[in-house]
Amino acid sequence: MVKPGRVALLTGVLALSACSLAPQYQVPSAPIAAQYKTVGPWTAAQPADRIDRNGWWKIYGDAPLDDLETRLLANNTDLHAAYAHYAQAQAFVAQVASGLYPTISASAVPQRVRQSDNRPLRAGGPNDYNSVTLGAEVNYDLDLWGRVRDSVVAGKDEAQATKADLASVKLSLQVALADNYISLRGLDQQTELLNETVMAYAKALQLTQTLHDNGIVAGLDVSRAQTQLSSAKSQLSQNLAQRALIEHAIAVLVGTSASEFSLPQQTADIALPAIPTDLPSTLLQRRPDVAAAERRVAEANAKIGVARAAYFPDITLSLQGGVQSAAYAGLVSAPNLFWAIGPQLVQYVFDGGYRRAQLDAAKAATEEAGDRYRSVVLSAFQQVEDNLSLLSYLGTALGEQKDAANAAQYSVDLALRQYRQGTVGYLDVVQAQTVALEARRSVLDIQTRQLSANVQLLHALGGGWSSDELAQVAATPALVATKIAHGAY
Q1: What is the CATH number of the domain that holds 166?
Q2: Do 151 and 346 contact (CB within 8 A), yes or no?
Q3: Sign of the dihedral defined by the CA atoms of residues 433, 436, 438, 440, in that order
Q4: What's the gap between Cα 277 and its chain centre?
Q5: How far apart are CA 456 and CA 180, in angstroms?
Q6: 165 φ/ψ sector (left φ>0, alpha ψ -120 to 50, else beta)
Q7: Which has the closest alpha carbon to 326: 131, 97, 146?
């Protein structure tokens, strides 16, 4: 029959082993607006998250972009490095979790020993003998104060934060690729415009040269026409140089040598899609950087429990046993058996304030993590508002710039007619053509900036990511490494 006192003692030990000295965790408060300022009140979308989680860039309906994004996921070296960093975090979780279980070790020590004849305090015995020992040892940390368990919780929180970091890296690379691709397409459109302009200026130069040869206009007009043509050619060359640099950047993003990569020129417009923004409160669940910052607050909170547990004694149960003999024959027999069992208690008596400093540092780290979380949240809302404002005002500016471009082209047509009639000089034609070219290039520039703001808005909204994905952080390091090798992440 088990004595009541032993039952009470066992119950007390089990109760202590379930305790944690970490403060009860609460997500830090952060200011959240009821609606986005730029676009007025919003009604939550149904479903709440309508951005494609399997490829947010597909919203643009551009097959070459889809192909480039797929190549980025498979080949980008920075992304693979982030995968490996996440695998390290997973391995660390397994490392600290091992402290929850007993450690078992075994040893075998077969020796032939020769004693010194002059060994101090020698008490006789043979000079040469065998010493054979087979043994095993089991140690188990009772973790009465939750030091190990809080370390495991902190490790899991850090692994979740690292997984969110991985999502942030992936999203940033995808956005960089889409942004570069849109810029390249915008430059292709400007190249087409400049080619047309060079052809038009060449015709104007020919016309001016003909008029000059017939004595109708002065040589100054020819010089002006030649200057304008050369300037347009220079702009075209600069445009092509800028395109080459962006093409090289895209090559690196998709994991290809810039010397072996090229994209054909395309001038078709990319449609500007509508982006579902939902309510501001949903943003905190859709931004991986916000999730990472929040998980690091939880990690720091758990480490307070680890620091507090250091004030209390560390109790380890140990069991040792085995056989030992001077002869191999009959080694495993009762007379050769030895064993020892008992607890080991370790308690600091004086540490010069070391534990107090550790606890203070853990509390300060939690405060720091909380403030960083609030900063990330505020920046997230700022980025959404920034890009909503850009899209709104650039939309208005594009309409106005198109009107300006149409008016400028009318001025060019009118100036050319009057020049042929001799009612205006060629300087008026040059001025009209210069204004028209800049107006048309501004239209293309605003369109490109609109698309870029559209991409950045998707970035600010998390690109379809959800904090639900952090629940899958329990995968083993080996599984993570396998998925990395096959491009599954």
Answers
A1: 1.20.1600.10
A2: no
A3: negative
A4: 21
A5: 12
A6: alpha
A7: 131
Q: Is the pLDDT of residue 476 over 50?
A: no
Distance CA 317, CA 299 (A): 29
Of 438 and 467, the one with more pLDDT: 438
Give per-residue pLDDT as tens, 381-393: 999 999 999 999 9
What is the number of helices (H) and of strands (E) in the chain? 9, 4
Q: How far is CA 155 from CA 138, 298, 424, in A?
A: 25, 10, 79
Q: What is the DSSP string of 311-346?
A: TS-EEEEEEEEEEEES-STT-SSGGGEEEEEEEEEE
> How many domains does the chain fold into?
1
Exposed/middle/buried for 486, CB within 10 Å: 0-12, 13-18, 19+?
exposed
Residue 408 confidence (pLDDT): 95
Quick one: pLDDT band at residue 478, thresholds 50, 70, 90? very low
The DSSP symbol for 270 reads: P
Q: Is residue 249 part of a domain?
A: yes
Residue 40, helix vs strand vs coil: strand
402: its two tokens: 């198109």
- Indicate left, alpha or beta for 464 from its phi (over 0: left) and psi (-120 to 50: alpha): left
- What are 290's two structure tokens? 């916000």
Is the Cβ–Cβ distance between 42 and 167 less than 8 Å?
no
Which region holds residue 353: left if phi is over 0, alpha if psi is between -120 and 50, else beta?
left
3-state secondary structure of 128: strand
Angle at 443 between CA 442 and CA 444, to 5 degrees: 90
19: pLDDT confidence band, cut at 50, 70 and 90?
confident
Range of the domain at 38: 30-100+150-312+356-485
Q: 10 Å Cβ neighbour count for 375?
A: 12
CB neighbour list of residue 142: distance below 8 Å, 6 or more residues apart = 13, 16, 17, 315, 316, 317
Q: Is residue 216 part of a domain?
A: yes
Question: Could you give the angle at the alpha carbon of 483 between the alpha carbons of 477 and 486, nearest 5°?
Answer: 145
Q: Please report which confidence band the pLDDT of residue 484 belongs to, taking 50, 70 and 90 as the band edges.
A: very low
> Residue 349 domain-assigned?
no
Q: How far is CA 223 from CA 61, 205, 206, 208, 217, in A?
A: 47, 9, 12, 9, 11
Q: Would residue 23 count as lying in a domain?
A: no
